[in-house]
Amino acid sequence: MSISTTADAPRQEYFGATLRRHRLEAGLTQQRLAEQSGVSVREIRYLERSQVLRPSAEIRRRLDSALSDGGPVCDVEAPCEDGTPLIGVLGPLVVWRGGESVRLDAMKQRLLLALLALRPNEAVGRDEIVDVLWPDEAPASCVNLVHTYVARLRRALRSERGAGAARNWIDRCGGGYALRADADELDVLRFTMLLDRADALDDPGLRADTLAAALGCWRGPVAADLDAGPTVFTEWTELPARRIEAALAYADLAMSSGGQQRAAVALRKVARDEPWHEALHARLMLALAASGQRTASLDVFQDMRKRLRNDLGLEPGAELKAAQSAVLREDEFL
Asked: Would you say domain 259-334 falls under CATH 1.25.40.10?
């Protein structure tokens, strides 16, 4: 999917934020992007500020073309026009319905939706819900409060399907609740579906495209805008790990077919959210060097070494040091 498809539905907030993110990741100023795309600086500024509601197809095509050298530009699928909600938790928690953002102001309510979205179509027990919402000490009324939050979420997500039959998105399952969704409605399911599809493909090109689409489901760290306190969802560690694996696999495929720049862009996006993952940054160094960005590659090493020392009291490991040596030697495979 390209950046142009994210604007097919009236989701200007997503389009503007996505455009700005990919422009910055490509290392382009608004002026430089304007020169490469033929779109005025003023228009780009308005787009990024969401002051232009629906950019024309021609403008979207030009921006796509200017950013295409940086690899696939993906984002969450556009919401269904029939009012079916789209839920995104691979990044800040978002809910879209009928092309419009659904406001969920209460933090406990948002935490509950995030927990259910990370365990789609699976019963999440009441005790676990209480532990997530009140990690320190639950109030005596916690069970009633959970019921209240569920009721509010049901109202927020309610949509009409088919012959006017109301759909219940959150089911009561024994002593807990389950969010019912499919891959067209929840980014977690779309991401895992695409990973499974990529694993089943033998053609390197198709596999790379599918992995790129999977990586495009991510907008940032899982539920980045939520504060879960000391509680850590198991999925919050499992899903990022699968994202890293997908990014490394995509980078290998891209570099083997001459797509060093695409590999570097994909790796940089994930590395931004994984600041201490040494293997990821080592591979990013090699991809940058292979695409002719030797100075940027060595900067990655210096930044990583500083973070490891300051934050963890560690020195770079063998993989990072090996990548640095390869870049300094200008090895032929680069």
From this structure: yes
